[in-house]
Amino acid sequence: xxxxxxxxxxxxxxxxxxxxxxxxxxxxxxVVERIARGHKLANRAxxxxxNIRRYGQIIGAATQEIAAGAHVHVHxxxxxxxxxxxxxxxxxxxxxxxxxxxxxxxxxxxxGSAGTRNYLGVLxxxxxxxxxxxxxxxxxxxxxxxxxxxxxxxxxxxxHASGCGMSGSDEGYATLMRTLQGYARNPNFxxxxxxxxxxxxxxxxxxLGKGMLRADNNFRHMTIQQVGGTRKTVERGVEALxxxxxxxNAYAREPIPVSELVIGMQCGGSDGYSGITANPAxxxxxxxxxxxxxxxxxSETSEIYGAEHLLTRRAVTPEVGQxxxxxxLWWEDYTARNKGEMNNNPSPGNKRGGLTTILEKSLGAVxxxxxxxxxxxxxxxxxxxxxxxxxxxxxxxxxxxxxxQVASGANLIVFTTGRGSVSGYKPVPCIKVATNSEMFRHMExxxxxxxxxxxxxxxxxxxxxxxxxxxxxxxxSGEVTKSEALGFGGAEFVPWQIGAVM
Length: 502
What we know:
Elements: E1 4-5, E2 13-16, E3 25-26, E4 29-30, E5 40-42, E6 51-54, E7 57-62, E8 71-72, E9 77-78, E10 103-108, E11 114-115, E12 119-124, H1 130-141, H2 144-147, E13 154-158, H3 171-185, E14 189-196, H4 204-208, E15 219-223, H5 224-227, H6 230-248, E16 254-257, E17 262-267, H7 278-291, E18 295-298, H8 308-312, H9 318-337, H10 348-352, H11 358-366, E19 374-378, E20 388-392, H12 398-408, E21 412-417, E22 430-434, H13 437-442, E23 449-450, H14 453-456, H15 461-476, H16 482-486
Parallel strand pairs: 12-13, 12-14, 14-15, 17-18, 17-21, 18-20, 19-20, 21-22, 22-23
Antiparallel strand pairs: 1-2, 2-5, 3-4, 5-8, 6-7, 7-9, 10-11, 10-16
Protein backbone atom coordinates (compact mmCIF):
# COMPACT_ATOMS: atom_id res chain seq x y z
CA UNK A 1 0.00 0.00 0.00
CA UNK A 2 1.29 3.47 -0.87
CA UNK A 3 2.07 5.74 2.06
CA UNK A 4 0.19 8.69 0.51
CA UNK A 5 -2.49 9.39 -2.05
CA UNK A 6 -2.89 12.28 -4.49
CA UNK A 7 -6.55 12.82 -5.23
CA UNK A 8 -6.23 15.00 -8.35
CA UNK A 9 -3.35 15.81 -10.73
CA UNK A 10 -3.68 19.53 -9.90
CA UNK A 11 -3.31 19.00 -6.16
CA UNK A 12 -0.23 20.43 -4.45
CA UNK A 13 -0.85 18.33 -1.35
CA UNK A 14 -1.02 14.57 -0.76
CA UNK A 15 -2.86 12.69 2.00
CA UNK A 16 -0.94 10.46 4.42
CA UNK A 17 -2.33 6.92 4.53
CA UNK A 18 -0.15 6.02 7.53
CA UNK A 19 1.76 7.91 10.21
CA UNK A 20 4.83 9.28 8.40
CA UNK A 21 8.23 10.04 9.94
CA UNK A 22 10.94 12.35 8.55
CA UNK A 23 12.84 10.64 5.76
CA UNK A 24 9.89 8.62 4.48
CA UNK A 25 9.50 8.63 0.72
CA UNK A 26 6.23 8.51 -1.17
CA UNK A 27 5.22 9.63 -4.66
CA UNK A 28 8.67 11.12 -5.10
CA UNK A 29 8.37 13.39 -2.06
CA UNK A 30 10.69 13.23 0.94
CA VAL A 31 8.85 13.79 4.20
CA VAL A 32 10.55 16.43 6.37
CA GLU A 33 8.49 16.23 9.57
CA ARG A 34 6.11 13.87 11.34
CA ILE A 35 2.71 13.72 9.64
CA ALA A 36 -0.25 11.81 11.12
CA ARG A 37 -2.46 9.50 9.09
CA GLY A 38 -5.19 11.43 7.31
CA HIS A 39 -3.22 14.69 7.36
CA LYS A 40 -1.73 16.55 4.40
CA LEU A 41 1.82 17.10 3.17
CA ALA A 42 3.04 19.45 0.46
CA ASN A 43 4.09 17.55 -2.67
CA ARG A 44 6.13 20.60 -3.79
CA ALA A 45 7.18 23.93 -2.35
CA UNK A 46 4.19 26.26 -1.82
CA UNK A 47 4.62 30.05 -1.69
CA UNK A 48 2.94 32.43 0.76
CA UNK A 49 -0.55 33.28 -0.51
CA UNK A 50 -0.61 30.42 -3.03
CA ASN A 51 -3.85 28.48 -3.20
CA ILE A 52 -3.77 24.97 -1.77
CA ARG A 53 -5.75 22.40 -3.71
CA ARG A 54 -7.33 19.08 -2.80
CA TYR A 55 -9.68 17.18 -5.14
CA GLY A 56 -8.46 19.74 -7.71
CA GLN A 57 -10.38 22.44 -5.77
CA ILE A 58 -9.20 25.33 -3.59
CA ILE A 59 -9.29 24.50 0.13
CA GLY A 60 -7.37 27.56 1.36
CA ALA A 61 -4.19 29.58 0.90
CA ALA A 62 -0.75 29.23 2.43
CA THR A 63 -0.08 31.68 5.25
CA GLN A 64 3.67 31.01 5.14
CA GLU A 65 6.27 29.35 2.93
CA ILE A 66 5.70 25.57 2.94
CA ALA A 67 8.54 23.26 1.98
CA ALA A 68 8.03 20.12 -0.08
CA GLY A 69 7.30 17.23 2.30
CA ALA A 70 6.14 19.52 5.11
CA HIS A 71 2.92 19.18 7.10
CA VAL A 72 0.07 21.31 5.71
CA HIS A 73 -2.42 22.08 8.44
CA VAL A 74 -4.09 24.86 10.43
CA HIS A 75 -0.73 26.45 11.30
CA UNK A 76 0.03 27.30 7.66
CA UNK A 77 -3.31 27.32 5.78
CA UNK A 78 -6.27 29.67 6.03
CA UNK A 79 -9.50 30.44 4.20
CA UNK A 80 -9.04 31.84 0.70
CA UNK A 81 -11.21 33.54 -1.88
CA UNK A 82 -13.51 30.78 -3.07
CA UNK A 83 -15.68 32.68 -5.53
CA UNK A 84 -17.10 30.05 -7.88
CA UNK A 85 -18.77 29.82 -11.26
CA UNK A 86 -22.12 28.30 -10.32
CA UNK A 87 -22.82 27.15 -13.90
CA UNK A 88 -26.47 26.56 -13.08
CA UNK A 89 -27.83 23.31 -14.56
CA UNK A 90 -24.89 22.89 -16.96
CA UNK A 91 -23.90 19.42 -15.73
CA UNK A 92 -27.27 17.83 -14.86
CA UNK A 93 -27.19 14.42 -16.52
CA UNK A 94 -29.95 11.94 -15.69
CA UNK A 95 -28.73 8.59 -14.45
CA UNK A 96 -29.88 5.48 -16.35
CA UNK A 97 -32.72 3.62 -14.69
CA UNK A 98 -31.83 0.37 -12.95
CA UNK A 99 -32.44 -2.72 -15.06
CA UNK A 100 -33.72 -4.73 -12.09
CA UNK A 101 -36.66 -4.16 -9.75
CA UNK A 102 -35.71 -4.34 -6.06
CA UNK A 103 -37.93 -4.29 -3.02
CA UNK A 104 -37.71 -4.23 0.76
CA UNK A 105 -40.07 -5.47 3.44
CA UNK A 106 -41.76 -2.40 4.85
CA UNK A 107 -45.00 -0.95 6.17
CA UNK A 108 -47.37 0.63 3.64
CA UNK A 109 -49.15 3.66 5.11
CA UNK A 110 -52.53 5.18 4.29
CA UNK A 111 -50.99 8.16 2.50
CA GLY A 112 -48.99 5.86 0.20
CA SER A 113 -45.65 6.33 1.94
CA ALA A 114 -43.66 3.42 3.35
CA GLY A 115 -42.19 2.86 6.79
CA THR A 116 -39.09 0.88 7.66
CA ARG A 117 -40.15 0.69 11.32
CA ASN A 118 -43.52 0.70 13.12
CA TYR A 119 -43.38 2.82 16.26
CA LEU A 120 -45.95 4.71 18.29
CA GLY A 121 -44.88 8.26 19.15
CA VAL A 122 -45.67 10.59 22.05
CA LEU A 123 -44.95 13.98 20.52
CA UNK A 124 -44.72 17.16 22.61
CA UNK A 125 -45.64 20.70 21.58
CA UNK A 126 -43.46 22.26 24.27
CA UNK A 127 -40.64 21.34 26.65
CA UNK A 128 -43.07 21.68 29.57
CA UNK A 129 -44.83 18.47 28.52
CA UNK A 130 -41.64 16.50 27.86
CA UNK A 131 -41.45 14.66 31.19
CA UNK A 132 -45.13 13.72 31.06
CA UNK A 133 -44.62 12.32 27.56
CA UNK A 134 -41.84 10.10 28.93
CA UNK A 135 -44.01 9.04 31.88
CA UNK A 136 -46.78 8.01 29.44
CA UNK A 137 -44.41 6.00 27.24
CA UNK A 138 -42.76 4.27 30.21
CA UNK A 139 -46.10 3.39 31.80
CA UNK A 140 -47.53 2.05 28.53
CA UNK A 141 -44.50 -0.15 27.87
CA UNK A 142 -45.07 -1.88 31.24
CA UNK A 143 -48.63 -2.93 30.42
CA UNK A 144 -49.67 -6.42 29.44
CA UNK A 145 -51.37 -5.18 26.26
CA UNK A 146 -48.16 -3.59 25.05
CA UNK A 147 -46.08 -6.69 25.78
CA UNK A 148 -48.54 -8.74 23.75
CA UNK A 149 -48.10 -6.65 20.60
CA UNK A 150 -46.34 -8.37 17.72
CA UNK A 151 -45.85 -5.67 15.11
CA UNK A 152 -45.09 -2.51 17.12
CA UNK A 153 -41.38 -1.73 17.60
CA UNK A 154 -41.81 0.48 20.64
CA UNK A 155 -43.11 3.78 21.99
CA UNK A 156 -40.99 6.87 21.37
CA UNK A 157 -41.39 9.93 23.62
CA UNK A 158 -40.29 13.00 21.63
CA UNK A 159 -39.32 15.83 23.96
CA HIS A 160 -37.50 19.03 23.04
CA ALA A 161 -36.34 22.37 24.44
CA SER A 162 -38.68 24.77 22.65
CA GLY A 163 -42.35 25.53 22.00
CA CYS A 164 -42.66 28.60 24.23
CA GLY A 165 -40.70 31.71 25.11
CA MET A 166 -40.64 32.44 21.38
CA SER A 167 -42.40 34.54 18.79
CA GLY A 168 -45.62 33.06 17.48
CA SER A 169 -45.24 34.35 13.94
CA ASP A 170 -41.59 34.37 12.83
CA GLU A 171 -39.25 32.03 10.96
CA GLY A 172 -38.37 30.10 14.10
CA TYR A 173 -42.02 29.40 14.85
CA ALA A 174 -42.68 28.23 11.27
CA THR A 175 -39.61 25.96 11.41
CA LEU A 176 -40.73 24.31 14.66
CA MET A 177 -44.27 23.93 13.27
CA ARG A 178 -42.94 22.10 10.17
CA THR A 179 -40.73 19.91 12.34
CA LEU A 180 -43.48 18.74 14.70
CA GLN A 181 -45.99 18.20 11.90
CA GLY A 182 -43.35 16.32 9.90
CA TYR A 183 -42.64 13.94 12.77
CA ALA A 184 -46.34 13.30 13.24
CA ARG A 185 -46.53 12.27 9.57
CA ASN A 186 -43.29 10.28 9.35
CA PRO A 187 -44.10 6.83 7.90
CA ASN A 188 -42.08 5.07 10.60
CA PHE A 189 -44.82 5.95 13.07
CA UNK A 190 -47.98 3.84 13.11
CA UNK A 191 -49.68 6.32 15.42
CA UNK A 192 -49.03 9.59 17.26
CA UNK A 193 -50.18 10.96 20.61
CA UNK A 194 -49.61 14.72 20.86
CA UNK A 195 -49.25 16.12 24.39
CA UNK A 196 -49.10 19.81 25.26
CA UNK A 197 -49.15 21.77 28.49
CA UNK A 198 -51.90 24.14 27.36
CA UNK A 199 -50.59 27.70 27.69
CA UNK A 200 -47.58 27.48 25.34
CA UNK A 201 -46.96 29.56 22.21
CA UNK A 202 -47.08 26.43 20.03
CA UNK A 203 -50.79 25.78 20.51
CA UNK A 204 -52.24 22.35 19.67
CA UNK A 205 -55.07 23.70 17.46
CA UNK A 206 -52.46 25.44 15.29
CA UNK A 207 -50.38 22.26 15.07
CA LEU A 208 -53.41 20.22 14.12
CA GLY A 209 -54.33 22.64 11.34
CA LYS A 210 -57.53 22.42 9.32
CA GLY A 211 -57.07 18.89 7.98
CA MET A 212 -56.04 15.50 9.28
CA LEU A 213 -52.47 15.48 10.56
CA ARG A 214 -52.23 11.80 9.59
CA ALA A 215 -54.02 10.15 6.68
CA ASP A 216 -54.75 7.05 8.79
CA ASN A 217 -56.27 9.26 11.53
CA ASN A 218 -54.40 7.19 14.13
CA PHE A 219 -53.82 10.29 16.15
CA ARG A 220 -54.84 11.60 19.58
CA HIS A 221 -54.06 14.83 21.42
CA MET A 222 -54.45 16.31 24.89
CA THR A 223 -53.13 19.06 27.14
CA ILE A 224 -52.04 18.52 30.71
CA GLN A 225 -53.87 21.58 32.02
CA GLN A 226 -57.16 20.56 30.42
CA VAL A 227 -56.95 16.91 31.55
CA GLY A 228 -56.12 17.86 35.13
CA GLY A 229 -52.44 17.31 35.87
CA THR A 230 -49.71 14.73 35.55
CA ARG A 231 -51.36 11.57 36.92
CA LYS A 232 -54.61 12.03 35.01
CA THR A 233 -52.73 12.84 31.78
CA VAL A 234 -50.56 9.74 32.13
CA GLU A 235 -53.62 7.56 32.67
CA ARG A 236 -55.48 9.05 29.73
CA GLY A 237 -52.34 8.92 27.58
CA VAL A 238 -51.79 5.22 28.28
CA GLU A 239 -55.40 4.49 27.35
CA ALA A 240 -55.04 6.50 24.12
CA LEU A 241 -51.91 4.55 23.23
CA UNK A 242 -53.73 1.26 23.86
CA UNK A 243 -56.37 2.27 21.33
CA UNK A 244 -53.78 3.41 18.79
CA UNK A 245 -51.63 0.33 19.33
CA UNK A 246 -54.45 -1.93 18.18
CA UNK A 247 -54.51 -0.06 14.86
CA UNK A 248 -50.72 0.12 14.49
CA ASN A 249 -50.32 -3.55 15.33
CA ALA A 250 -52.49 -4.47 12.33
CA TYR A 251 -49.73 -3.25 10.01
CA ALA A 252 -47.43 -6.00 8.77
CA ARG A 253 -44.31 -5.92 6.62
CA GLU A 254 -44.93 -6.42 2.93
CA PRO A 255 -42.80 -6.14 -0.23
CA ILE A 256 -42.41 -2.50 -1.23
CA PRO A 257 -40.32 -1.12 -4.12
CA VAL A 258 -37.04 0.45 -3.04
CA SER A 259 -38.27 3.56 -4.83
CA GLU A 260 -40.14 4.27 -1.57
CA LEU A 261 -36.92 4.59 0.42
CA VAL A 262 -36.10 8.15 1.48
CA ILE A 263 -32.58 8.25 2.91
CA GLY A 264 -31.11 11.12 4.90
CA MET A 265 -27.34 11.31 4.38
CA GLN A 266 -25.15 12.70 7.16
CA CYS A 267 -21.49 12.92 8.13
CA GLY A 268 -20.16 13.79 11.56
CA GLY A 269 -16.92 13.43 13.43
CA SER A 270 -15.25 13.63 10.01
CA ASP A 271 -11.57 13.06 9.32
CA GLY A 272 -9.12 13.25 6.44
CA TYR A 273 -10.47 9.95 5.09
CA SER A 274 -14.14 11.01 4.97
CA GLY A 275 -13.87 12.49 1.48
CA ILE A 276 -11.82 9.53 0.23
CA THR A 277 -13.70 6.48 1.51
CA ALA A 278 -17.09 6.65 3.26
CA ASN A 279 -18.55 9.77 1.65
CA PRO A 280 -17.82 8.89 -2.00
CA ALA A 281 -18.91 5.29 -1.32
CA UNK A 282 -22.19 6.67 0.04
CA UNK A 283 -22.34 8.76 -3.13
CA UNK A 284 -22.20 5.55 -5.18
CA UNK A 285 -24.98 4.04 -3.05
CA UNK A 286 -27.02 7.23 -3.38
CA UNK A 287 -26.77 7.03 -7.16
CA UNK A 288 -27.84 3.39 -7.07
CA UNK A 289 -30.94 4.25 -5.05
CA UNK A 290 -31.78 7.13 -7.37
CA UNK A 291 -31.45 4.76 -10.32
CA UNK A 292 -34.03 2.54 -8.61
CA UNK A 293 -36.40 5.50 -8.25
CA UNK A 294 -35.64 6.28 -4.60
CA UNK A 295 -34.81 9.53 -2.82
CA UNK A 296 -31.68 10.71 -1.02
CA UNK A 297 -31.44 13.90 1.03
CA UNK A 298 -28.16 15.80 1.45
CA SER A 299 -28.18 18.48 4.16
CA GLU A 300 -25.90 20.53 6.43
CA THR A 301 -25.75 23.79 4.45
CA SER A 302 -22.90 25.13 6.55
CA GLU A 303 -20.90 22.04 5.55
CA ILE A 304 -21.33 22.36 1.80
CA TYR A 305 -20.15 25.97 1.96
CA GLY A 306 -17.43 26.48 -0.64
CA ALA A 307 -18.54 23.40 -2.57
CA GLU A 308 -22.01 24.60 -3.52
CA HIS A 309 -20.89 25.13 -7.12
CA LEU A 310 -20.55 21.36 -7.49
CA LEU A 311 -24.28 21.06 -6.72
CA THR A 312 -25.61 24.07 -8.64
CA ARG A 313 -24.03 22.69 -11.80
CA ARG A 314 -26.06 19.49 -11.29
CA ALA A 315 -29.33 21.31 -10.62
CA VAL A 316 -32.11 20.27 -13.01
CA THR A 317 -32.97 23.92 -13.67
CA PRO A 318 -31.32 27.28 -12.97
CA GLU A 319 -34.18 28.01 -10.55
CA VAL A 320 -33.29 24.97 -8.42
CA GLY A 321 -29.65 26.02 -8.39
CA GLN A 322 -30.61 29.52 -7.31
CA UNK A 323 -32.68 28.10 -4.44
CA UNK A 324 -29.48 26.58 -3.06
CA UNK A 325 -27.55 29.84 -3.42
CA UNK A 326 -30.40 31.67 -1.69
CA UNK A 327 -29.88 29.41 1.31
CA UNK A 328 -26.11 30.03 1.22
CA LEU A 329 -26.75 33.79 1.26
CA TRP A 330 -29.21 33.35 4.13
CA TRP A 331 -26.51 31.49 6.08
CA GLU A 332 -23.90 34.18 5.46
CA ASP A 333 -26.33 36.75 6.87
CA TYR A 334 -27.42 34.44 9.73
CA THR A 335 -23.85 33.86 10.93
CA ALA A 336 -22.90 37.52 10.52
CA ARG A 337 -25.81 38.86 12.54
CA ASN A 338 -25.04 36.35 15.29
CA LYS A 339 -21.35 37.36 15.29
CA GLY A 340 -20.22 34.04 13.87
CA GLU A 341 -18.52 32.96 10.66
CA MET A 342 -18.98 30.17 8.17
CA ASN A 343 -15.46 28.90 8.90
CA ASN A 344 -16.30 28.10 12.52
CA ASN A 345 -16.31 24.54 11.18
CA PRO A 346 -14.34 22.16 11.11
CA SER A 347 -14.54 21.23 14.78
CA PRO A 348 -11.48 20.50 16.96
CA GLY A 349 -12.01 16.77 16.38
CA ASN A 350 -12.20 17.29 12.61
CA LYS A 351 -8.88 19.13 12.75
CA ARG A 352 -7.24 16.39 14.77
CA GLY A 353 -8.39 14.04 12.01
CA GLY A 354 -6.61 16.11 9.35
CA LEU A 355 -9.18 18.66 8.14
CA THR A 356 -8.45 22.40 8.08
CA THR A 357 -10.88 24.89 6.53
CA ILE A 358 -14.62 24.58 5.89
CA LEU A 359 -13.75 24.55 2.17
CA GLU A 360 -11.85 21.30 2.60
CA LYS A 361 -14.53 19.74 4.79
CA SER A 362 -17.32 20.75 2.42
CA LEU A 363 -15.65 19.24 -0.63
CA GLY A 364 -15.51 15.90 1.15
CA ALA A 365 -19.05 16.21 2.51
CA VAL A 366 -20.59 16.91 -0.91
CA UNK A 367 -19.24 13.56 -2.13
CA UNK A 368 -22.14 11.90 -0.27
CA UNK A 369 -24.43 13.23 -3.01
CA UNK A 370 -22.92 11.12 -5.79
CA UNK A 371 -23.43 12.32 -9.36
CA UNK A 372 -27.23 12.38 -9.77
CA UNK A 373 -28.98 15.61 -10.82
CA UNK A 374 -30.12 17.89 -7.99
CA UNK A 375 -33.91 17.72 -8.25
CA UNK A 376 -34.92 20.33 -5.67
CA UNK A 377 -33.94 22.30 -2.57
CA UNK A 378 -36.11 22.29 0.57
CA UNK A 379 -36.32 24.30 3.76
CA UNK A 380 -35.53 22.60 7.07
CA UNK A 381 -38.22 19.98 7.83
CA UNK A 382 -40.12 20.81 4.64
CA UNK A 383 -41.86 17.74 3.23
CA UNK A 384 -39.84 16.21 0.39
CA UNK A 385 -42.08 15.58 -2.60
CA UNK A 386 -39.56 14.99 -5.41
CA UNK A 387 -37.91 11.68 -6.20
CA UNK A 388 -34.17 11.50 -6.75
CA UNK A 389 -31.32 13.44 -5.15
CA UNK A 390 -32.43 16.54 -3.21
CA UNK A 391 -31.05 19.01 -0.68
CA UNK A 392 -32.61 20.12 2.62
CA UNK A 393 -31.31 23.24 4.37
CA UNK A 394 -29.99 22.59 7.89
CA UNK A 395 -27.20 23.38 10.34
CA UNK A 396 -24.15 21.12 10.42
CA UNK A 397 -25.04 20.06 13.97
CA UNK A 398 -25.82 16.40 13.36
CA UNK A 399 -28.80 15.74 15.70
CA UNK A 400 -30.49 18.92 14.48
CA UNK A 401 -29.83 18.14 10.81
CA UNK A 402 -31.15 14.58 11.13
CA UNK A 403 -34.22 15.89 12.97
CA UNK A 404 -35.00 17.99 9.91
CA GLN A 405 -34.51 15.05 7.54
CA VAL A 406 -36.82 12.82 9.57
CA ALA A 407 -39.43 15.59 9.60
CA SER A 408 -39.01 15.88 5.82
CA GLY A 409 -39.93 12.21 5.46
CA ALA A 410 -36.69 10.22 5.69
CA ASN A 411 -37.32 6.58 6.64
CA LEU A 412 -33.63 5.64 6.87
CA ILE A 413 -30.50 7.57 7.94
CA VAL A 414 -26.93 6.82 6.83
CA PHE A 415 -24.22 8.49 8.90
CA THR A 416 -20.52 8.45 7.96
CA THR A 417 -17.89 9.18 10.60
CA GLY A 418 -14.11 9.14 10.89
CA ARG A 419 -13.61 10.05 14.52
CA GLY A 420 -16.52 7.96 15.77
CA SER A 421 -20.12 8.95 16.48
CA VAL A 422 -22.69 7.38 18.79
CA SER A 423 -26.29 8.40 18.24
CA GLY A 424 -29.60 7.12 16.97
CA TYR A 425 -32.73 8.75 15.63
CA LYS A 426 -35.94 6.97 16.55
CA PRO A 427 -38.24 6.31 14.82
CA VAL A 428 -35.74 6.05 11.94
CA PRO A 429 -32.91 3.47 11.93
CA CYS A 430 -29.41 4.88 11.50
CA ILE A 431 -26.59 3.05 9.70
CA LYS A 432 -23.14 4.10 10.99
CA VAL A 433 -20.31 3.95 8.44
CA ALA A 434 -16.64 4.15 9.50
CA THR A 435 -14.20 5.96 7.21
CA ASN A 436 -11.11 4.08 8.41
CA SER A 437 -10.35 0.58 9.64
CA GLU A 438 -8.58 1.66 12.82
CA MET A 439 -11.61 3.50 14.18
CA PHE A 440 -13.93 0.71 12.97
CA ARG A 441 -11.99 -1.86 15.02
CA HIS A 442 -11.80 0.48 18.02
CA MET A 443 -15.56 1.23 17.99
CA GLU A 444 -16.91 -1.86 16.25
CA UNK A 445 -19.82 -2.16 18.68
CA UNK A 446 -21.15 1.16 17.29
CA UNK A 447 -20.22 0.86 13.61
CA UNK A 448 -22.32 -0.99 11.02
CA UNK A 449 -19.96 -0.84 8.05
CA UNK A 450 -16.24 -0.25 7.47
CA UNK A 451 -15.09 1.62 4.37
CA UNK A 452 -11.46 1.76 5.44
CA UNK A 453 -10.86 -1.29 3.28
CA UNK A 454 -11.08 1.03 0.26
CA UNK A 455 -7.63 2.22 1.37
CA UNK A 456 -6.10 -0.80 3.09
CA UNK A 457 -7.96 -3.67 1.44
CA UNK A 458 -8.08 -2.73 -2.22
CA UNK A 459 -11.91 -2.60 -2.31
CA UNK A 460 -13.25 -0.30 -5.03
CA UNK A 461 -15.63 2.57 -4.36
CA UNK A 462 -18.10 0.90 -6.73
CA UNK A 463 -18.05 -2.37 -4.80
CA UNK A 464 -18.32 -0.64 -1.43
CA UNK A 465 -21.21 1.46 -2.70
CA UNK A 466 -23.05 -1.68 -3.82
CA UNK A 467 -22.37 -3.28 -0.42
CA UNK A 468 -23.84 -0.21 1.26
CA UNK A 469 -26.90 -0.25 -1.01
CA UNK A 470 -27.60 -3.88 -0.06
CA UNK A 471 -27.28 -2.88 3.60
CA UNK A 472 -29.91 -0.18 3.02
CA UNK A 473 -32.35 -2.84 1.88
CA UNK A 474 -31.64 -5.21 4.76
CA UNK A 475 -32.00 -2.50 7.41
CA UNK A 476 -35.14 -1.13 5.75
CA SER A 477 -36.52 -4.68 5.94
CA GLY A 478 -35.93 -4.92 9.68
CA GLU A 479 -32.26 -5.75 10.26
CA VAL A 480 -31.31 -4.02 13.51
CA THR A 481 -28.51 -1.43 13.38
CA LYS A 482 -25.87 -1.08 16.10
CA SER A 483 -27.40 2.16 17.40
CA GLU A 484 -30.83 0.53 17.58
CA ALA A 485 -29.45 -2.46 19.46
CA LEU A 486 -27.79 -0.12 21.97
CA GLY A 487 -31.07 1.75 22.52
CA PHE A 488 -30.14 5.14 21.04
CA GLY A 489 -32.80 7.57 19.88
CA GLY A 490 -34.28 8.99 23.04
CA ALA A 491 -32.22 12.21 23.22
CA GLU A 492 -31.52 13.12 19.60
CA PHE A 493 -34.71 15.01 18.67
CA VAL A 494 -33.27 18.52 18.28
CA PRO A 495 -35.47 21.01 16.37
CA TRP A 496 -33.58 23.95 14.89
CA GLN A 497 -34.16 26.87 17.23
CA ILE A 498 -34.01 30.08 15.18
CA GLY A 499 -34.64 33.43 16.83
CA ALA A 500 -34.68 34.86 20.33
CA VAL A 501 -35.67 32.90 23.41
CA MET A 502 -37.88 35.34 25.27
